[in-house]
Design a protein that fits this description.
Blueprint lengths: L2 H58 L4 H24 L2 H24 L3 H68 L7 H14 L3 E4 L10 E5 L2 E8 L8 H12 L4 E6 L5 H10 L2 E3 L4 H5 L5 H9 L2
Parallel strand pairs: 3-4, 4-5
Antiparallel strand pairs: 1-2, 2-3
Length: 313
């Protein structure tokens, strides 16, 4: 996946998220509007339901409407008085509250019993009940749509995040490759002793190793100790013009035991003698030389993987 393709995909996903966000906002606005309408319809339907129930009850029991109105108003006023008295214990306020509740009961009862056209009320009640149900269905549909849009937007955002992380990894990789290539372009073949050792420190750190230097170059056969993924590698460094003999392998192997490392390696900018190669094969010492040095610097030759393969770490 190329960087340009990934960036164009991210841009497309951003546009998709924007579109989904706008649609989700519109759906939520529609839900809010439908909820408001439903609340109004519920109040009106409830009013007609109470009016129809009250008038039907009075008609069935052949009650005297004025008497019912008076009785209900007195009951409402009494309840208002009792409630106010219990809450405030203030008699004057309780009396005023009782009178106010009585007046409210009279007005409400009058509208329910005398001002309602029963035929019109039934028709309006049926129409509003149907509209109320339609609004319920609409809100349910809109909520499902909102849920689907939210889920889709989360999936798109998750995919976008993966692409962003991939793009960032690619950028880091390109940056690492550039830095490794810059290191390899240096005149490493001409380096000797401490200069080559310092150069290898830089390479190993770029490859993700933590470096421990020994007290003196060549001390106990180890110049560097590289640590990565819990694996300690004792490294003998040889910046030579001529071939490196098997003594370097012996020193690296001895240093591995002395410094309690997991494996050992010998790294040179030259080559190894046949004797050194044979000894390395028998001891498991990893060899890095002029022929595979580029793979080592570019991270294609991994000391940790080789150590695990040879020592089973």
């Amino acid at each position: 996946m190329s960087g340009n393709a990934t960036e164009s995909e991210i841009a497309a996903l951003d546009a998709r998220v924007g579109d989904l966000s706008r649609r989700l906002h519109a759906v939520n606005e529609a839900i809010y509007s439908a909820n408001s309408k439903r609340g109004v319809r519920w109040c009106i339907v409830s009013y007609y339901s109470v009016a129809l129930f009250a008038n039907g009850l009075v008609d069935r029991l052949v009650f005297w409407r004025s008497g019912v109105l008076l009785m209900v108003s007195i009951c409402v006023g009494a309840l208002g008085f009792i409630a106010a008295d219990i809450i405030t214990s203030h008699r004057t306020f309780s009396i005023v509250s009782g009178i106010a509740c009585t007046v409210f009961g009279l007005l409400a009862g009058y509208f329910l019993l005398f001002c309602v056209n029963m035929q019109e009320a039934r028709r309006r009640h049926e129409d509003l009940s149907l509209e109320f149900q339609r609004l319920n269905d609409q809100i349910k549909t809109l909520r499902n749509e909102s849920k689907d849009l939210t889920s889709e937007m989360m999936q798109v955002q998750a995919h976008r995040q993966l692409l962003v992380e991939h793009l960032e990894d690619q950028r880091k990789l390109r940056s690492m490759e550039y830095r490794r290539n810059q290191l390899f372009q240096r005149n490493w073949r001409a380096m000797r002793s401490v200069e080559f050792e310092e150069y290898l420190e830089e390479v190993l750190q770029l490859l993700g190793y933590t470096i421990e230097t020994t007290a003196i170059t060549g001390d106990q056969g180890v110049d560097l100790i590289a640590v990565k993924q819990g694996i300690r590698i004792a490294i003998q460094v040889k910046g030579y013009l001529n071939s490196v003999s098997n003594s370097a392998i012996q020193e690296a192997f001895a240093g591995m035991a002395h410094y309690k490392c997991d494996c050992c390696a010998a790294i040179t900018n030259s080559r190894f003698t046949n004797g050194a190669i044979q000894l390395a094969q028998s001891t498991g010492c990893i060899l890095v030389h002029e022929d595979n040095f580029r793979d080592f610097v570019m991270g294609q030759l991994d000391l940790v993987q080789m150590a695990r393969g040879r020592y089973g770490k």
